[in-house]
Amino acid sequence: MSRGKALALGAFTAWPVLYMILFMSGIFVSIVADLADAGPGGEFPYGLLIIFPLHLITMLDIVALQVIYVLYLIKTDAVPQDKRALWVAVIALGGMLSMPVFWYLYVWRRPDQGLPEPAGERTVEERAPGLDPAAEQDGTGQGHTVNVVRRVLWSLYAWPVTLEILVSSAFSTVELGLIAAVDVLLTVPSLVALHMHIWDRRTFPAAVWKIYAFTFLAWQLAYGFFLEPAAAGEPFDPLSLVTAFVTVPLFVALFRYAFRAWDEIPSAEEGRAGEALP
């Protein structure tokens, strides 16, 4: 595939993600505007004349891209045979979030045509925890592929949960006031830790994240069981525990990030030095 065609395919691949961000931003702005407007509204929602066609185009784009990428998987030699079934599943389930990753790894970089990898070794922060450095250096790229799949699967959880938490927090702040605003301020760092965990980026000392992780857990228990029901003037609803299970992976990522042993992951230079020792 030529560079021009690869860029065109990349543009179509990026559009669903961009549209999702724009759509959610538009919904949020619309909600805030409706809450600020106390008067009755009888105007026709002309925005639907734009949103509906864009929705339809985006849905057709996603379906067409999935077909294109599956056909590309079948025909190309860029993807190893033992990884094709995995990528078919990831593209089918991950959709618009997984296809940009596949495009970058197997269309833009085109390993089947022998193009060189980007210059420079990956740093310690860019390695996934627990991966064997030898797997990344054995020439097969197996460790790198595992890391990419891990990031795709985590991203499939992280972005919808992030959007849902931010939107629901906006509603809660309007309804409950100060106590909900405090909850938002304490929740945002957990979302930051979630995304930093996915992309293996180190921020702030580990001690800060450890203290925050336990503080946030205690706050969420107190807020969910006592503070929020008291602010709403309603008794605690046990059914809310069902929705709380959605945040379990968030806490898993937060505590893994807080207690991550960054220094135990050797760099490429350290790995080669160790191999040179008798």
List the keywords.
single chain, 278 residues, mainly alpha, 2 domains, 11 helices
- Structural class of the secondary elements? mainly alpha
Query: What integer is the average pLDDT?
Result: 75
How widely separated are the two ends? 46 Å
Show unreliable segments: 111-140, 264-278
Number of strands: 0
Estimate the helix proportion, in percent: over 70%
Number of domains: 2
Element string (H = helix, E = strand): HHHHHHHHHHH
What does this structure look like?
- The protein has two domains: 3-37 and 47-117, no CATH class; 160-264, no CATH class.
- 72% of the residues lie in helices and 0% in strands.
- The protein has eleven helices and no strands.
- Helix 8 (206-232) runs antiparallel to helix 10 (248-258).
- It is globular.
- Residues 111-140 and 264-278 have low confidence and may be disordered.
Compact description:
The protein is mainly α.
Q: How are the elements arranged and paired?
A:
Blueprint: H1 3-36, H2 48-75, H3 81-94, H4 99-108, H5 133-137, H6 142-176, H7 178-198, H8 206-232, H9 240-244, H10 248-258, H11 268-276
